Amino acid sequence: MGRLFLVEFDQTPEVHFYCCRTCQAHIVLAQHCFSRMEQLREGFFTNVVNVVVDERTRMEGFSQVEDIHCVRCNKPLGWRYIPAQPNGTVLLKLAHLLFWDGARLLNADTLLDPVVDQENQEDHDQENQEDQGNQGEEDEDDQGPDDNVDID
Ligand SMILES: [Zn+2]
Questions:
Q1: What CATH number is given to the structural domain containing 34?
Q2: How many domains does the chain have?
Q3: Residue 141 included in any domain
Q4: Burial 30-51 (b: 16+ CB within 10 A, else e)
Q5: Domain-embedded: residue 136
Q6: What is the mean pLDDT of residues 104-122?
Q7: Distance from the CA of 84 to the center of ligand 1, in angstroms?
């Protein structure tokens, strides 16, 4: 019932922020990320918007947590710890987010262009297997037609 009003950041070169990878709802400004754990692909954030928090708690490792979902598409994005951390700190999974770097939306965990999604990546891996012998000789001009690839 009723319209869902989402907080939206200015999508300008000066403003950097994270958004939901699934529906691109804006989630948190980059300035409110105070710790990125690159290997775990997680980050600690404050001032998160457009999320809902699960009422039921669960255990994550040795910690009690409440899961956080995107308010628009309901995808799980991370969790908050119980008891609540100072300043409403939450943990977000970078693999579930995109990052607006002022010009483009990038995968938040790799900061690379999200052109290749995971399904296509597997296909590419198979195509590239025969290329493994000549690594370093990759040439843009070699990208021939892929018509002979059977993907059905
Ligand atoms: Zn979403």
A1: 2.170.150.20
A2: 1
A3: no
A4: bebbeeeeeeebbbbbbebbbb
A5: no
A6: 74
A7: 23
pLDDT tens digit string along 1-40? Answer: 456 789 999 999 999 999 999 999 999 999 999 899 989 9
**141 three-state secondary structure:** helix
pLDDT of residue 117: 52
- Ligand 1 centre to CA of 38 (Å) is 22
pTM, full prediction = 0.72
Distance 136 CA to ligand 1 centre (A): 38
In a domain, 30, yes or no: yes
pLDDT at 137 over 60: no
Q: Which range of residues forms the domain containing residue 99?
A: 17-127
CA distance 77 to 75: 6
Measured torsion, CA atoms of residues 25, 30, 36, 42, in degrees rounded to the nearest 10: -10
pLDDT for res 84: 78
Report CA(48)–ligand 1 centroid distance (Å).
Answer: 13
Rounded to the nearest angstrom, the distance between the alpha carbon of 21 and the centre of ligand 1 is 7
Residue 115 maps to a domain: yes
